[in-house]
Amino acid sequence: MEKRNITDELKGNAYPGRGIIIGKSSDGRYAVTAYFIMGRSTNSRNRIFVKDGEGIRTQAFDPALLTDPSLIIYAPVRVLGNKTIVTNGDQTDTIYEGMDKQLTFEQSLRSREFEPDGPNYTPRISGIMHIENGTYNYAMSILKSNNGNPDSVNRYTFAYENPAAGEGHFIHTYKCDGNPLPSFEGEPVLVDINSDIDEFTDMIWNSLNEENKVSLFTRFIDIETGETKSRIVNKNK
Predict the structure, then answer these.
(1) pLDDT digits 0-9 by tens, 206-218
(2) Which of 25, 67, 159, 168 is 20 to 30 A away from residue 198, measured at CA?
(3) What CATH number is associated with residue 208?
(4) What is the distance between the alpha carbons of residues 72 and 65, in angstroms, rounded to a whole number?
């Protein structure tokens, strides 16, 4: 698979929706993830990321403008021991609770499907990072409707063992802007990952469409020590 430049991927797409990047830094030291949200409606744009324990949650920037919290207020990132869960919805909790009961990542998601927001039927995208004894692997999942058919769900899981330094994978909810919004297609995109969290954060944030971007979270986890560095960027301040 051809490795793509994440800046080009983002600048060339005005509305990828919500996106997850997971990989390994170019120096091989860090497990890396990023999660961003975008919005077209006032309700979707009225959000910020805030810290929540070892993870984050979304919160209404102006509570008076919040109309329907069901699909926009959730915890995108939670930590379960040596596992970091990153998703675009409340399936974060589903994965956390399932894996806490010894289910696998894939098994935990069997009880979920795409979001009930027809006609878009937004895919649920999820990622899991596992670090143990100096080793690192990750997996990504997408649950989507069958070409917009709400009676049929397609489930895809992609697992990456011993990922190469400087490589990551990028999955997002929408192929591009549209009405209805077309779902992401194919495998997660192979992208390049650098070794500096601030450069990485700035690169992603500055590449997202200025009108539609809302919030960004990034985290670097030291594979040997487990120590973390995180950044949050919110358009609403």
Answers:
(1) 999 999 999 999 9
(2) 159
(3) 3.60.20.20
(4) 13
